[in-house]
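Holo prediction. Input below; ligand is 3LM.
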Amino acid sequence: MAAFKHQSTCVIHGGHERCAPGSLSTPLYQSATFVFPNCESGGARFAGEESGPIYTRLGNPTTDEFERRMALLEGAEDAVAFGSGMGAVSGALLSQLASGDHLVAAIGLYGCTHALISEQFPRFGIESSSVDFTDIEAVEAAIRPNTRVLFLETPVNPHLAVYDLDAIVALARRKGLITIVDNTFMTPLLQQPLRHGVDLVIHSATKYLNGHGDVIAGVVCGRRELMEPVRMAIRKDFGAVLSPHDAWLILRGLKTLALRMERHSDNAMAVAHYLEAHPQVARVYYPGLPSHPGHRLLGRQMRAAGGVLALELHGGFEDAVRFVNQLKLFSIAVSLGDAESLVQHPASMTHSPYSAEDRAAAGISDSMVRLAVGLEHIEDILADLKQALALCSESQQSARMAGEESQ
Ligand code: 3LM
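Structure of the complex:
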């Protein structure tokens, strides 16, 4: 695979092989199966003795280009595309774990990942412990003789805690464990976990990689020896395959990833500063802010802080709901990484699969609001936040006055 000096070139050209008619855009091979020139050739392809497509669940030329581009961007030997981010999360984990194994997972993971690990895996004899990965000694203490994997997101969905990849990899190597990192919030443009020694990297490609809110997809990246079972056992036999049309859309979206990540990060940084200085805002969670404990890792493992942030208002839960409902430019929707700014309430939406106790232990309060800052002009974004906070303050004041009158 051709390597490029700059990732901003790789997002456009990485893995592209020009086909005979010379089309600039990657051709879409919207075909479930592929015709063999003869019977011997078909058998040779199944035996891995001849290259060439067989059947789209096993590989497809359009999807292959997405996988080559992702491998180049993450600095991996190979990448395997999945039909969703959860397909990639479960695929990566199941490629490493079997009945009787144990994994240590970071507290505060995307809600369905938490449900997969804590509710589904025990049905198959896979146990887990949930630990704060900012405390490396606690991670070490949770490791058992049957532990195989350390699993984390960094920054964490939704409260943006940042975990130290170098420290976690050092511990994993000492203990002979596999590290798996969900890099969805950063993309390889802002963070490349494999370069820190992580073994497997996952993305929900639904988010920034595609970037246009019209695809559900995932991808796993890593070295060939670990990717072989992901491709040939997990995706082939479990079948969470990506549609070639969706791979084509992601390849198109990827071309602007460098520009988009810069704009998302700049916009989110400005929003974080604005909110941190606002009297109605109790707390802002964004690693770009010097007040954030993960800020020290900016520059060392993250090139920028990305487009997602969380906040809490002084008024608590009711104020949070009022604030979300008052926003006009921000759409009330789960997901992130789209051109449109989105707002959601983690406790009742993305992180509702947690029990109330698990959510509290993971640091996800009922009054937390998550913003996925989009690509709109920053003045329009700030104006929307300002008007929503002003309306919240007005309704707080009238509620207080009504309370005083009734006394
Ligand atoms: C969300 N997250 O709004 P898909 N890993 C991470 C994620 O954030 C997600 C996945 C994996 C959200 C989705 S909630 C119903 C909407 C860090 C998804 C799973 O399977 O492609 O959705 O990815 O935070």
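The chain has a mean pLDDT of 96. That is the main takeaway for now.
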